[in-house]
Design goal:
Blueprint: E1 2-8, H1 14-31, E2 35-39, E3 45-48, E4 68-70, E5 78-80, E6 83-90, H2 95-98, H3 100-119, E7 124-128, E8 152-156, E9 169-179, E10 182-190, H4 203-207, H5 213-228, E11 230-234, H6 240-254, H7 257-260
Helix pairs in contact: 1-6, 3-5
């Protein structure tokens, strides 16, 4: 089994959260450390995908007052509020770093198993999206209104989403970034509806079954460990030097207007 450090972080600002994820990717490349991190956000925050234009956020009125950050990974915009966010940093040479699809599928398969166990849906199901829908300039601004192969979706015979062609509701999507052979995969699970994204009901609204981020994190991390053959160990608190390195990344990049407005 592969040793994997587990980090459970308290809610933090968006620029700090993105800086920590990038630092974990750099550490995976430099030191060969694998890490699973579970975290939340200290206030509702809009994150833009790497390739999205900053000006496009004007198309989404509900999140207009949210602070905004730009991710180093691609995909559509996310409103981080009532969710559990995760990141998984995989070092170079590991089989999962060589197979982006395997990593994506394993994390989402583990989530589908956990959600099915908790909710036990009748007349509905959690599954993984079978195909990617058309990409291009006409894509919705929000990630949770897009569909990519492997996304975790919820379908119900009683409740169909009028905003997407297949009527499903997306509950989790992930994105990846590579650096010197290491891979960072991160994404979010929509636990509840945010006033800053009212078009997106979460798990609580769709199923009537609320689950805390803590409960889901414990069950999901265990399921991910089983899926990927990981031995989870609790990470040590950040040292002063590590915090300084993360703060430097935050200041120079993710809290910088030059980075946020680069497109």
């Amino acid at each position: 089994m592969t040793n994997c450090q587990a980090i459970i972080d308290p809610p933090q600002p968006g620029s700090w959260n993105m800086a920590v994820d990038e630092w974990l990717l750099n550490r995976a490349a430099d030191e060969g450390a694998m890490t699973l991190r579970l975290y939340q956000w200290s206030e509702p925050t809009l994150s833009l995908g790497y390739f999205q234009a900053h000006d496009d956020r004007a198309s989404h009125d509900a999140s207009a007052n949210c602070p905004v950050v730009r991710r180093a990974s691609g995909g559509g915009a996310l409103v981080h509020d009532q969710e559990l966010t995760y990141s998984l940093a995989v070092p170079p040479g590991h089989s999962l770093a060589r197979s982006a699809e395997q990593l994506y599928d394993a994390a989402h398969t583990a989530l589908v198993a956990v959600l099915t166990q908790i909710v036990r849906p009748a007349g509905s199901e959690f599954s993984r999206c079978r195909k990617t829908e058309g990409r291009g300039s006409g894509e919705p601004f929000l990630c949770f209104l897009r569909r990519a192969k492997g996304d975790v979706i919820y379908t119900s015979s009683k409740l169909a989403n009028p905003l997407v062609a297949d009527g499903s509701y997306k509950l989790c999507g992930s994105a990846q970034r590579k650096h010197r052979g290491a891979v960072l995969q991160h994404g979010g699970v929509l636990l509840g509806q945010s006033p800053q994204a009212p078009e997106l009901p979460g798990l609580a609204e769709l199923t009537g079954c609320g689950i805390s981020a803590q409960q889901l994190g414990e069950l999901w991390s265990s399921s991910v460990a089983d899926q990927l053959g990981l031995q989870m160990t609790k990470a040590q608190p950040l040292s002063a030097g590590e915090r300084e390195a993360i703060q430097a990344l935050e200041t120079a990049k993710f809290a910088s207007d030059a980075w946020t407005h680069r497109r």
